[in-house]
Amino acid sequence: MDRPGISFPEHQLALKGLARLNRASGVHQKVWRELLLGMAAKHQTGPVRLLDIATGGADLPIHLFHQAREAGMDLRILAVDRAEGALRHAMASCAASGVPSALADDFPLQPGIHFRVADALAFPPSLPAADWVTSSLFLHHLTNDQALDLLVGLSGLTRRGLVIADLSRGWLNNLLVTLGSHLLSRSPLVHNDGPASIRAAFTAGEACELAECAGLHGAEVRSAFPGMWLMRWEKP
């Protein structure tokens, strides 16, 4: 889906399909629970600045913003993606769901979401430091070396910790994603990329090894239904 030459309507249809798949899997709520655990461990109060990497259609930051608002939390999000078309879709989604948003290079001064076109694989990353960094369903797009470099770079951007969620490679997960892709989306891109993503994904065990190699000592990686894993690392 991140290949060049995709038209904006095709990209938008695919992002809508991915949003339905993500809602069905509950991945965003899983990330929210991991964030809460991390913030409780760090006894964090006051405004929380969160950097979301490879945000796509911004389904995750929008969900996190709504959850934080319900919890009375001051959450200020900077969400980045290298695809300008994805951020156009994300801005429209924010407007439709009542989330304050804007295109900007830094975090909002009030609760809300700012969007910025940026390549998370650039090194050193030209992004501001955050309390927490999240990324959902991105690592399976990367090679082993790219994933390792990304984790190292993100660990340098966060003051408190990371929460990463991704697919887990396996035949049963391949079957579930293939069925879900066809049932929940009309996008040929999603039909193709869903199973391809599973085949390219890291297992939970491989994610543990990546975290250790990246210096994220003490990172917790756990499997989660359906067909994914979550990593939480708290900075010492």
General description of the model:
With 236 residues, the protein is an alpha/beta fold. The chain has a single domain (8-234), classed as Vaccinia Virus protein VP39 (Rossmann fold), CATH 3.40.50. It is built from eight helices and eight strands, in the order H-H-E-H-E-H-E-E-E-H-E-H-H-H-E-E. The chain has helices at residues 8-25, 27-41, 59-70, 84-97, 144-157, 171-184, 188-200, 204-213, and strands spanning 48-53, 75-81, 101-103, 112-117, 130-136, 158-167, 220-224, 228-234. It has an eight-stranded mixed beta sheet with strand order 3-4-2-1-5-6-8-7, sandwiched between helices. Helix 5 (144-157) links the parallel strand 5 (130-136) and strand 6. The radius of gyration is 16 Å and the shape is globular. It starts with 7 loop residues before the first helix and ends with a strand.
